[in-house]
Design goal:
This protein is of the alpha+beta class. It has helices spanning 22-50, 56-68, 139-154, 161-174, 176-183, 191-194, 196-210, 212-224, 251-262, 265-271, 341-360, and strands at 12-13, 16-17, 71-81, 86-97, 100-111, 118-126, 132-136, 187-189, 228-238, 241-248, 292-297, 304-312, 317-326, 339-340. A hairpin with a 2-residue loop joins β1 (12-13) and β2.
Length: 362
C-alpha cells in the first residue's frame, strides 16, 4: 500500500486530539497579512483623505498646498472596528518624499471570540517604482501569540493555560533560528506580484509627484469645485493650527469635481487602470458628509497641520487622527536587500505546520 497517500495522524498534546479549525486559522493569518498590507498603503490612504478637505480661504488653501506638496510627515492613530470580526488599532508614523514613503506601526488586533490581543510592530517602505518592503520587528511575540490563539481554538478549550504556554515555548525553541532571521529581515512585494492595475496606479501617482503641472491642475479643480462648508470654526488649536469642523453639502460641486477629475491628466491616467479605479458615487454606501471631519490649518502659511476623520457604516467604523507637517520629511532608505514576501509566508506556514505536528506529539 502506498503510504504516501495515507492521511497524516492527527497530532495530539498530552492525549488531547488537536483539530485545527482552518477557518479560524485562516482568518487569523488573513488579518495579520491584511495589517501588513495596511502598513504599506497607509501613506496612500492619508493622501486620499487629504484630497477631500474644505472651503473658506484657509481650508481651501490647505488642501491645495497639500496636493502641491511633494513631501510631508504624519503621526497619529487609526482605529478600524470590523463589528463582527474584531478591531484593529494602529499607531502610525509616516513620511513621504519624492514618490517614496515609509511607515512605522505599532498595532493591536482584537479578534472576536479570541481573548488574547495580537501585537504587531513593524516598518514598511514604498519605493517610487511601487515595490513594497515590510519588516516585522516583534516577530517572536507575534508568532508566539498566534500559536497560543490557534492552540486554544483548536483544542476546544481542553488545554490548560500551562499546557498552552508549554507548547508555545517548545514551538518557539524549535523555530528559534527562523524566528531570529525573520525578525531582522526585510520582505518585499514587487508590483508584478500585485497586478497590472496596481502598477498602472503607481505610474499615475508617480505622474503627480514628478509633474508639477499635474498637481497644480488637481489643486485648481478642487478650488473650483469644493463640496464642503465650514460647520464649526471654534475648534481648539492643534499642532499649531486653527481647527475647523467640515460638512459636505454640495453634491453638485462633487459631481463637477468627479467629471473634471476624470478629464484631468491624472484622472485619464487612472482611468486606464481598470474599473476599480473609477469613482461612482451611486455605488457608495456611505459618503464623507455622513462622517465627522475636522482639519487644522496654519494661520500664516495655510498649510494643513492635522486631520481627524470618523466614519461609520453597517459593517465597520473607522477613526483616523493625524498631526501633519507639509513640506517636511525624513530620510527614507529603501532596503538594499529583501526576501520575497511570498516565500516568507510559505516558510512561515511550513514552519508552523512542522512545529504544530512535532511539538504537540511530545
Amino acid at each position: 500500500m502506498d503510504q504516501g497517500n495515507q492521511p497524516a495522524p492527527q497530532p495530539q498534546y498530552n492525549g488531547v486530539p488537536m483539530q485545527p479549525k482552518k477557518k479560524k486559522t485562516g482568518l487569523i493569518i488573513g488579518i495579520v497579512l491584511g495589517v501588513i498590507a495596511l502598513i504599506a498603503i497607509i501613506s496612500a490612504v492619508l493622501v486620499y483623505f487629504l484630497w477631500w478637505q474644505n472651503p473658506e480661504k484657509m481650508v481651501t488653501d490647505a488642501v491645495s498646498n497639500a496636493i502641491m506638496a511633494k513631501k510631508m510627515t504624519a503621526d497619529g492613530k487609526v482605529v478600524i472596528d470590523m463589528r463582527d470580526q474584531g478591531k484593529i488599532e494602529l499607531n502610525v508614523k509616516t513620511a513621504t518624499d519624492s514618490g517614496k514613503s515609509k511607515a512605522n506601526i505599532d498595532a493591536k488586533l482584537d479578534i472576536k471570540g479570541v481573548e488574547k490581543n495580537i501585537p504587531l510592530k513593524g516598518d514598511a517602505v514604498l519605493d517610487s517604482d511601487g515595490t513594497i518592503y515590510v519588516k516585522i520587528n516583534n516577530f517572536k511575540d507575534l508568532y508566539g501569540t498566534l500559536l497560543e490563539v490557534v492552540m486554544e481554538s483548536s483544542s476546544g478549550g481542553n488545554l490548560s493555560r500551562s499546557q498552552i504556554e508549554t507548547y508555545r515555548d517548545q514551538a518557539l525553541e524549535k523555530m528559534s533560528s527562523e524566528i531570529d532571521k525573520m525578525s531582522d529581515t526585510w520582505m518585499k512585494i514587487s508590483p508584478d506580484e500585485i497586478g497590472s492595475e496596481y502598477k498602472c496606479g503607481i505610474n499615475a501617482l508617480k505622474k503627480i509627484q514628478s509633474d508639477e503641472s499635474a498637481r497644480k491642475e488637481l489643486a485648481q479643480i478642487y478650488q473650483k469645485n469644493s463640496s464642503f462648508t465650514i460647520k464649526d470654526s471654534k475648534i481648539s488649536d492643534r499642532n499649531g493650527g486653527r481647527g475647523f469642523e467640515l460638512q459636505g453639502n454640495n453634491k453638485s460641486n462633487s459631481s463637477k469635481f468627479d467629471e473634471e477629475f476624470k478629464n484631468s491628466s491624472v484622472g485619464k491616467a487612472l482611468g486606464k487602470c481598470g474599473k476599480s479605479n473609477s469613482h461612482d458615487s451611486k455605488d457608495e454606501s456611505t459618503s464623507i458628509d455622513e462622517s465627522s471631519l475636522k482639519v487644522w490649518v496654519d494661520r500664516s502659511s495655510h498649510e494643513l497641520k492635522a486631520l481627524e476623520l470618523k466614519g461609520d457604516s453597517k459593517k465597520a467604523s473607522v477613526e483616523i487622527s493625524f498631526d501633519i507637517n507639509v513640506n517636511k520629511s525624513e530620510e527614507i532608505k529603501v532596503p538594499s536587500s529583501a526576501e520575497s514576501l511570498k516565500e516568507f509566508i510559505e516558510g512561515f506556514m511550513e514552519g508552523y505546520s512542522s512545529g504544530l505536528s512535532s511539538t504537540s506529539t511530545r
